[in-house]
Amino acid sequence: MTSYLYQEVELSKRHEEILGQRTALLKQMENLIEGQQKEKKNRTAVSEAAHDRNTALLKDLEAIEERLHARACILPHPNVVSIETQYWASVEEQIPQWEQFLLGKAQSPQGRNQRAGKRFQKCTPQDKQKTKSSDLPPSRSSSKSVSRSPTPRAKLRS
Description:
Elements: H1 2-73, H2 78-102, H3 112-119, H4 125-131, H5 152-157
């Protein structure tokens, strides 16, 4: 009988050890689950903050895009529109003349030969009289009342 009693005591001790290990493992599992839940809460908070930040950035980008689109759609000043319309009308008028020139059937619509001839013509006495008109600013020799200091280039030369 003593052997049964001895075995019973040994089994009881072993049972207590197993229960202690079980309690320790359960405590570890609880701690692990709590840590995972905290980590999950942190990740959820970070994810929500990132989502909120991304939503705010998207709204900002949409607002900027709307402002840029509105700025692009603003009509230019009426004078600019008028000048642009006149320009394109003159271009459309010149197209047939340029087409003829490009086909080799007509001279240049700009009349380069005429302009070149005018550039190199000698001046007549009448032309010289026109250049001496009062529309021109006074020359240095005729403006005695105004005393001017030498120009910076003149200072550098000396």
